[in-house]
Every structure is written in C-alpha cells, then in structure tokens.
Amino acid sequence: MPRNRTARQAVLGASVRRPTVVKSSSRTSATLRRRLVVGGLVLLALVLVTLSFREEQDGPVSGAQSAAASALRPFQVAADRIAVAKAVYEREGPGRTNRRYGYVTRPTA
Q: How far is CA 108 from the centre of its chain?
C-alpha cells in the first residue's frame, strides 16, 4: 500500500473519480478582456493616424483633434508648471527656503 494516500482515497477507493468541471477562471477572463481592450485601442490609433494623414486641414478628424487638445489643455498647463517647479528644485537644491516669497535674498559669494 503506497504511503502517499489520503484519507479520502482510502474511503472512496481508487476507482471512484469525481467529474472535473472545466470552468474559466476570472483571471483568464480578465486577461482576455485586457488584451481585447489593448488590441482595440491599438487598432483605433492606427485608424485615426491613417485618417489624419489622408484628410485635408479642415476635416472631421482635425476638428476632433482640436477639441481633444482644448479639453486636455488644463493638464498641459499643470504639467508645464510642474516642470518649472522641478527645474527650480534641481537648480536650487532640496533645502527649505523662503526665497520664493521674497523674504530672503540669495547670498552673494
């Protein structure tokens, strides 16, 4: 008698098998959904680039581009302000300062 038998095998016997249920897990369906979304976005991007190159200056894709650009303008302004703040931080260092408010002048050395 093999030593690796469980109590279930001892009670049910080796000839009794439970039916296997083939069920797609949520993990595989989520992966499939993610791949379909990415594939759809890539296809949409290719179609939009193709239409953009084929149309004239005042076509419908151009109008959609300008509408999207105006809708995303606040995010561009915020990104520009963050870039300026980062440049100041890299130039002046991480130390605390009140120079921004005009309270302290830079030392001349």
A: 47
For residue 104, CA distances in Å to 44, 46, 88, 92 come to: 54, 54, 16, 14
pTM: 0.44
Q: Which residues lie below 8 Å from residue 52, measured CB to CB, with a gap of 6+? A: 61, 62, 65
81-93 exposure pattern, b = at least 16 Cβ within 10 A, e = fewer: eeeeeeeeeeeee
Question: Residues 25-58: pLDDT tens digits?
Answer: 667 888 999 999 999 999 999 998 898 888 887 8
Going by C-alpha positions, the residue among 83, 84, 48, 82 that lies closest to residue 68 is 48
